[in-house]
Queue: 3 jobs
Job 1
Amino acid sequence: MDKNKIGVFLSLLLALGLTGCKEHKSNSKLVINEVLITNEHNFQDDYGEHNAWVEIFNRSYGSSNLAACLLKASNTPGDTLTYFIPKGDVLTAIAPRQHALFWADGKPNRGTFHTNFTLDATADNWIGLFDAGNNLLDEVVIPANTLGADKSYARVNDGSEEWEVKGGSDDKYVTPCTNNQTIDNNAKMEKFQLHDSAGIGMAITAMSVVFIGLILLYISFRFIGKASVALSRRRAMAVKGITDKQEAKEKKLGEAHGEVFAAIAMAMHEMQSDVHDVEDTVLTITRVKRSYSPWSSKIYTLRETPHKK
Amino acid sequence: MGEFIHFLGENLSDFWTYTGFANATAGHLVMILVGLFFIYLAVKKEFEPMLLIPIGFGILIGNIPFNMEAGLQVGIYEQGSVLNILYQGVTSGWYPPLIFLGIGAMTDFSALISNPKLMLIGAAAQFGIFGAYMIALQWGFDPMQAAAIGIIGGADGPTAIFLSSKLAPNLMGAIAVSAYSYMALVPVIQPPVMRLLTTKHERLIRMKPPRVVSHTEKVIFPIVGLLLTCFLVPSGLPLLGMLFFGNLLKESGVTRRLAETARGPLIDTITILLGLTVGASTQASEFLTMNSLKIFGLGALSFIIATASGVLFVKIFNLLLKKENKINPLIGNAGVSAVPDSARISQILGLEYDPTNYLLMHAMGPNVAGVIGSAVAAGILLGFLI
């Protein structure tokens, strides 16, 4: 492959990669997960006060840091307040699949988790979460008069697409700083217990997948093997000067078994090591080209001897 | 003076409460005997010494009785103790993938590449896992525990540890010890099953010698293998990724130093740590339970089922093959991925019936396919249950 072709290939690869890397906000690790506006008897802040709050959820399985992110809110068109989440607070690092709660009390001097804006239940509230580069990570609009006292607007499950009003019923409850649906069972395992108590379903499906995986591998290597045999036959034909494919096939060119090579190697070994006591020896010295690598460089493995000046 | 002697007496009495003699229970003694038995099997019978010596000695270490309320920080289950730190590689599951890296770097897949249909035997033998899974469910284990126990039938210690650390951490000690014990006992378990399920005529089948596999094919194999198996079962990525990566290091021909490290010092180090800590995790108080006995029973059954399914699959498969392409069913047992022991059993049994019929190279095909198959099966179980 010449350099031009390699260049074209790499450019296409880069273009494809850049297209694929386009960021979709729904893919962000951090999302707004639950919002409560009118807090009468719900969660108290560390000052013992009831204020509106915004819960952020890290839906990834790795830690994520909110430091330097921006939390913006607006309940009047053209008037957006921006809260810069301070750097240097270890608590802004959210563990995998965990939550952080921000108090929308308009009192940022009370600490990292107290924002400079408040929310108004009688107006549309737009809340946006932006990363340090001011790129939108997630946003939500809570329509005016949607939420009563101590009711929250939340995703049905942590990080899910659907939102609902929570509070006031046994299956829809307000959950500051914790999962929107309490996970008190292993749904998958319970399904297996319920529908496949004998394990037959699991055995059939899992064995099918194992077979599919290895059949795919089998098919691939059947073709690769055939291609390889054809290639070595072509090479053998070129060496032996045979042009007729049928003749090459009859002579089984390129299909030698490992045993043949093993026998040849053994014979050569015996001839060279056992039969002749003294051999005429020709010593060939070839210059060995070694490409430089810091891993093999002697410079990095030798310590310079200190010298006195 | 009397007060001083009283003080010394109190000190000695206090010291006595810390000694193993004061804290020993019947359970500790039983486990110490088990450890000694493992060491005996390894030294005298040479059953998997690389595994049984570390595990056997680990059992001794883990069952030295001590005052568990004194906070000495010596037990494997005491957070922050040296053994506990070494055990993290097992509980968080990073020892097994490193072992797989080494296995990949030492495995020659040529036999499989030259005769890819042997892969299907490796798939069939995985029925041992699911057969044991079904029986475990009947014996009262929940699906996650049953899956962790079933994987013993994959005959792959690292895979068993990896899966049980995710699905049933409380059973991991028993599962790991059971898996490694039965791998060591493959020469005892498999031959009777193989003899029972084959006729004399079948045992004499001669297979076509494998063709020579080109370097290009060997390089392509780990790449295609990774892409196909992991696209299908991404949850098998830690094991399959490392297995195929190790194999690429070996076959690429340009990373000899890395391949040698992976199959030499690295796998040796991890094997020592893995064996020792798995052995030490069998503390009598945690290990000697009815469940452990059940797990040992299920482990034996899973090996028998896996061997039988491999052999029977070959017999059925032979019905579809031309006469010159028939497979000797004695290599069916090698689908159980105890590399290379089960392949060696095929060879020994084959030679018993025909001293010129060498089956080892043919048996290595299903044997390494079994490694891939058991890692895929572990990925499936993880994907289904977590």
Note: The mean pLDDT of chain B is 90.
Job 2
Amino acid sequence: MKIRLDNVVKTFETFRAVRDVSLEIESGELVALLGPSGSGKTTILRMVAGLEYADAGHIYFGTEDATDIPVRDRGVGFVFQHYALFPHMTVTENIAFGMKVSKVRRDKAAIDARVTELLRLVQLDGLGERFPGQISGGQRQRVALARALAVDPKVLLLDEPFGALDANVRRDLRRWLREIHQELGITTLFVTHDQEEALDLADRVVILDKGQIVQQGTPEDVCRNPASAFVMNFLGDTNRFTAAVSGGVARLGNATIPAPGFSDGPVEIFLRPSDLGWNVSGEGIPATVARVIDRPAGRRILAVTASGEAVELDVAPETQVSAQDKGIIIIERARVYAAA
Amino acid sequence: MARRILPGFPLALGITLVYVSIIVVLPLGALVFKAASLGFEDYWRIVSSPRAVASYRVTALSALAATAFNLVFGMALAWVLVRYRFPGRRFIDALVDLPFALPTAVAGIALTTLFAENGWFGSVPAHAGIKVAYTPLGIMVAMAFTSLPFIVRTVQPVLEDLDPALEEAAQTLGGSDRSIFLRVILPLLTPALLAGLSLSFARSLGEFGAIIFIAGNQPMSTEITALLAFIRLEEYDYQAAAAIASVLLITAFLMLAITNILQARALRYMARG
């Protein structure tokens, strides 16, 4: 089912949570809403679900205007951050809940068969008689997913689905959710503040800031061509410099950075730690090493430039460098944005 | 064993046991002892006398009716206080505890005045020929008044802690308001409701001060068990008073035991596997 948001607005008291958001999600697509807290991502998700009503604008499911359809008739599956499993029901009863309260009558055998099928899908065979309090967080989230899928939703909505889990479980569940999505092909929209999760899981990432979409595209698009300084900053560690452009180039230390299309004047230059290198001499920014942090994939140098700015850069694990060394930061890649 | 912050186990347990012994066990023990000094036949004669049996009936039935009334209205009151914000909410919240604070005799006199045939409230049903004061209905009113806070105060905190996401989840799954209430909210409130119910019922069984003013106290019809025990006491028949009181004691104890069992069943999902 294709979903379309058309100039949707939502205000809480005086706080404008969502400002004029328009968005299309293709049928079968897996889309991430990514943004810092307060960016309106959860509000958008809840409006798609019908748990909040839009102040203005429309939400379409396929060609049908779903804006005023109440949540219970909207046919969405919703997975909550803290699972929201019914604590007094067993796993089986939780999964069967939607089928039992449905207006469509199902006989007991059909419900049982569907529950068994879903338990297998979420790899929880044999745990059907447990209560939510008796299983782990990762298992609870899988029960929540099975419960949401039980009513054959047109759309699957997940609100920070892995936010409450520890890192390893989170990574496993992510891959597993991707597999389930591939298997079922259900249109899926999920909310996260974790850029790694969004990039790892989604076909398309929608980045939000202050209630507005600032960029949307494939993970490759947003990583390689961040549309603004905000996106650049939000997607990963960056070093920010201000510099002046003259004649289409900006100067940082004794390095020149091409800035085509920028008129003369101040600009912001963003450098990812992996876009930088360390050398004893050459063209770059002269700096002194303050500290070296060792990580499994390499070494991170915290350096201070001659003008006193702190810079972080990642170098290969075999690089010989230690605190107080003096050298040059080599710029391999840079992104230039107009000064804010 | 990890070091604890609070005073050690022996001291804490000692204080608790001494306190419970002096305040609870000793008086009850004396009561049982007194009743036991009657032979079985005498005991049975006293507790099964028609006047005593009539008093059990009116006490138990009124207590049941008052508890049922409070179950519905106490829950509604708790619901309104937790779920809605309106001017005067905190005032109403404070009013709920008034029956606890008010001397029960004062409550009894006030209720009698209000529910008398020419009183503010009593005159309305009087048109339909229904008398409240000096009838079992009046006993029920007094019981309901004094035990209302129990249900409200046990349900309120549980309702406050109920995760709104549970109701939202049930809605996204297509649940109607009715099925969400019956299948999600009510089962989660059941343990608290049972606790409030048993306290409310036990209190109603034992209520004395508020009732004697409104009941009329006619033997065989509006005489409650606690009053009968009191009358025997006035007659210096301590053994008969103890025997009648022991029936109340046993009933209250059985009732609390039953609700505890029910509560454990309702909470079985809390047990770790």
Note: Helices of chain A lie at 41-49, 91-101, 108-121, 137-149, 167-184, 195-201, 219-224, 229-235.
Job 3
Amino acid sequence: MTMKFNRRSMLRGVLGGAAVGVGLPALDAFLNGNGTAWADGAKFADRFGTYFWGLGLTDTPAGGTRWVPKTIGSGYEITPELESIADLKNKVSVFSGFRVIGDGKPNVVHWSGHAAILSGVAPAKSNVMDGPSFDTRVADVLGATTRFKAVDLSASGDVSANYSTRTGHSFATPETTPLALYTRLFGEGFQDPNDPNWRPNPEIMLRQSILSVVSEQRRSLNASLGHADQVKLDQYFTSLREIENQLAIQLERPEACEACVIPDAPEDTGVGLTVDVVEQNCITMARLLAMGLACNQTNVFNMVHTPGFSTTYVRGETKTYHQTTHDEPTDAKLGYQPKSSELAGIVMRSFGAFLKQLDAIPEGDGTLLDHTLVMGFSDTGYAKIHSIENIPVFLAGGANGRHKAGQHIAGKGDAITRLSLTAQQLAGVSIGEFGQGAMKTSRPISEVMA
Amino acid sequence: MKVRVGAAATVALASLTAVACSLQAGQQASVAPDPPETALVSDPEAEVRYVDPGYAAFGDQHLTTVGVRRLTESQYRNTIADVFGPDITINARFEPERREDGLQAIGNVRLSVSTTGLEQYFSVARSIADQVMADERRERIIGCQPASVDDRACAESFIKSRGMHLFSRPLTDGEIDARLAIWSEGAQQKGDFHEGLKLALVSLLVDPEFLFRKEYAEADPADPDAHRMSGYTKAARLSFMLWDTAPDAELLEAAQSGAIHSSEGLAGQVDRLLASDRLEQGARAFFTDMLHFDKYETLTKDPGTYPKFSQAVADSSREETLRFLVDHLIAQDRDYRDIFTSRDTILNRSLAAVYQIPYPSTEDWARYTFPEDSDRSGVLTQVSFLSLFSHPASSSPTVRGVKLHEIFMCLPTPEPPADVDFSKVQALENGTVRERLDHMTNPGCNTCHAISDPAGLSLEHFDGLGQTRRLENGQPIDVSAKIGDLEFSGAPGLGQYLRGSPLVTSCIVRNVHYYGAGRPFDYKDAAYLAEKGEAFASGGYRMTELYRSILTDPDFYQVIIPDGAGPDDGDAQALSDKPATTGAGQ
Amino acid sequence: MRRTLRQVSCAAALALGGAGVAHAEWSRTYVVEWYEAAMYYGADEGVIDPGTDCPAGTNGEPDWTKVMLEAGYSAQETRWLLDPTHPFRPEGHSTSGQNQMAFRGKDRANVYSQPWLAPDPVLTGVSGSIGEGFDLDGDPDNGFTSPDGSMSGIDNQFYRTLGCWLTYRGPHRQSQHALSKNDEMREGAWTVAIVVSGEGDDPLNDDNVRIGFYNSEDALVKDGNGDIARDYTFVIAPDQRFEAIFDARTVNGVIETTRPADEVWLREASYVRELQLLEAQVRLEMKPDGTLSGHVGGYRPWFDIYKGWIDARGAVIEKLTWIELPGVYYALERNADFSPDGAGGEKTHISFAMRLDAAPAFVMTPGAAELATEVVSYKSIAPPPGKRHRAIPGPLGDRVVDGIVLTKDGVLLGGPEAEIPPPEAESQIASLRE
């Protein structure tokens, strides 16, 4: 492992706004001698997840902020739109003032924000990222020993609401209902890690044989291939290998998991776009996901609460949330849009509830959330004008003791990729820099790194 | 195995079994004395036709892959139904498509298969194999009765015949041998011929040669320095375009024999496909794509505002438009431009309630002609377009205007500027939307809204569900519009405007071409498209003639060698053993 | 529908290839979306509170221990019978009540089939003076006064008799019975279409109006809010019984019968879905929002009411709706006020009114030939009458005999001679708990 660290990047860090880590890869710093367990002796898997919601939070040019705490550092005060994380405040860090720097590329509305956070590059056009999303890199590191490398979720039932990509073009297909998630995690192929009568399933071996037929046929045809087509087929074969790995893991006796209790199947709920239905689906999915994590089915997840263009609306309202953010006038006295702010608070309720589900599962002396890092973020800052300044970002969970949580960090216009880098290092990925162009950074937020 | 034969022939199933099963594994059949046969059975009830598998003809010479397109959900379903019977159930979630240049068929070219997606394909493949090998079906589908658990000839005939249909080309020797190996492993392990064949079938069903439509070019015999599209690829293009499914036996036969390379042979196949009832399936797939009907996945309406909306209404409205288009353009072979002005439709009881008209039938679907004074005018005034391109609780002239330009005129609207300030837009509770939009004084907005809004505003006599209305917030709705120098009023005026627009007819030409060709619009094609447009016009704007004109034109099968797949560097590229992950954008 | 005939026939001509010859000048069409007995609720709030109708509130639950003891069961037997976990209850029928409850008459006779063999528990009826319905007997001094005070002499002995019963009492569209039974209709169990036509120029004030109630096989459709969706089409399915036509007039939009119909058959949202009315009248308002709402009334056979509740599984009804069914029998007999045979005849019928709400709909003549723009009879082209609606439709209905439910094999669990607890109780209990 090389330390990507040079004098220039350090200097830049010192001169920048927030204090700066020096690009020190996390693994070297914290692993014990043989690299199998963390120095504090914790043996719990590292889990990582992204949590996305659309339309940002309220912080207007008129100065009417509804989410940015006034205090910096630990012990930040709970603002109206952060109400839902009040109970977990000590496990959540809040990041304000970070931005997407476009390098002359247009602001692709409801896309540039999260595309830049995830890929490290401002995208050229909608629905395409100019690189893989970083969660896939985390999944490559954390997902090698679990049945699923990652699990993708869409609480609003929108199957295209997923931003996890290895190519920038093809995106993972999320589970869109709690039942589908349950079936994936605990349906066919699930092996109870605590089953004393475990034995390898011969059916799995036959499935391996089937897939090896396909992978061996890769060169069967004497046909040349263009670069673009090569990438597509490479993705296919990467997927194939991941499934082969999953099968191989299923042939090994699973490690016992103390916290693993197989949940009951949820009811088959319909797709609904009202905020209450999305919230309920989000909570049920979180409960199932938490158990999927505790039962070692996966270590990585990507949850999309609602996409930015979402047609989510409040039952009985005549306008969608998205529409409201745009056409609701700013209240002159308050300095913000009261209805939009109320909706933002409602949407944030799901984030709080999501984290609470992870925190409800005891593991060792702590909870599942203590052994997880969740990066919560949105597509915009001030949604009314599609701002990609001051996009709200949260890091939640203890990351096995690596995250010094409970702080508010003000970015003062720094590249938002610093947060992506921080998240990857906290999650246990050994990288020293992230992003391209003006958003290339080797400076994680050292204040939140233990 | 190499089998070289002459012309294919039609014979009965019984003799196929005898011939196919008499070939021993590994046997080299040089020249078959009689036409050798492999069953390609779509409909077990129908007359069975056989095609020379022509194995030697495929994989023998160097090929260039000129296209890789992921099979769409409907293509997958239709192909499985054709190859194994319509009673096979497919319960799977398919990965979403992506739209580019107005069509998923174009965006699709960029798609691969994610891990989750492949898991789904793997799971559904096992389910299909279970169903195919179920007692009640297997004899009919396999086509031979295994003499013993290790009846290799029977296994081989199945793998070759079904594999050929799934891959839209004969399998290579390597592909066959690998399947025979896993068949043998499974059959021995389980002591069951069919259990082994299941494994072989699953491996075919998850193979990228099936999940992707790979298009191949080969050396042109007329000009060794040039390429031509492989006959099998031509057959697949015709079939997927017109029937939305893999090629049938006759098409594969035409590909194998080379008949498809002659203009008569090609025209004969095009005529045959166009004359079939299955053209409806292809047309439905095309319009499902072109009209953005994937948006139905997430269509929702606020029950407080539109109590009549339900999933049944949504499904019905989609079906209405597809039935209307197929009836108008295919069954009746009428002028494409009339889809914007026709007051005819085909509806059901749920839709009649939305349209606020009596349902004039006791059947599930009925033809209906809207009264002259109804404001209804063609496809833009059907519930599908009006509700898909609205908000959950209101109409949206802007979205409607943007989408009608994008879908029917191939005029995409740029993304709105990011810093747009909506604060001047009044609340929904006041006045009509026209007044609210009139406050759009931002010059950055006006450029686009000046085009999109007038068209959308002319549809304001229909609310966000597509129901007729004359008032909004108690005020009469003004549906007059001015686009450029042209002034018109309401949906009928808009319909006439579109009917007369050259952009509308050039757009359908363009869409049909690229839907079939599976690549983005290229300005180099402008002259070709213009020529097709003229032919479309002189043929009276008939969709069937448009299909014929495009599909019989050699230009449609023009080969474009992609970057990296040149005849010289191609081999190195394809055969390099670099890890796949490096190419996957890591 | 709020459409004049001219508009409708224009659309129909285009849609259907030619409208029929119409005599009426205007027509409106609807589909019934709600029926309930017109039980005026005399309290200001709640659903069971004391009010002018029932000063003690809705009748409470009978003291079943007392009832069984008085019927001659021992304390031990009573305790065993009232324990809901004990058998005597056939399979698939375990919610409440059990067959042995029936055998509490003289010599343990079945009080459901022979209520006169039980003592009259004296049902508490309505004591208020306000009621809804029609002055059926033409005597303004006999009967209730309407809630708005505009009408007196309203005959509604059904209400007077049963208005404090838990199942019927409650504000508009909120009583237990109306909610559950209308939902069966709203989920498609049956459909009644209505056609109103008139010969004058002003539909709201027309002296020559007819209103017809017709059977339709087209199910009601619920909208996104759970209400009945408007504007759906219903085709008249001719029926020899279920067709009711009234001569009427409209006054300010209210349809009033000009001459009571001698005998009509209508649907009712109840366990028995058919209702015979003698001397029947309607008063229905065509509202500006397009709906139709009001009352239908007349004299109905009172024993059928009782029989309906018995067939609905007497013991279950008693437990769920807090009633001693023999009390219903005695009270209906006592309050019956009409004889088809004239003043001196046996009073087999009781005055009754129901509330009816209908949604705007399109109604088509049989075969969907054209819009129904005229109120005419289709009985002449109706098929022979089919099976009558049972109180409890489906397989369980066939197993209800004398208010008790037989097992699938047709065996009666319990009976006058039954040993309590039954000797097989242990094994039955065991099997029930499996």
Note: The radius of gyration of chain C is 24 Å.
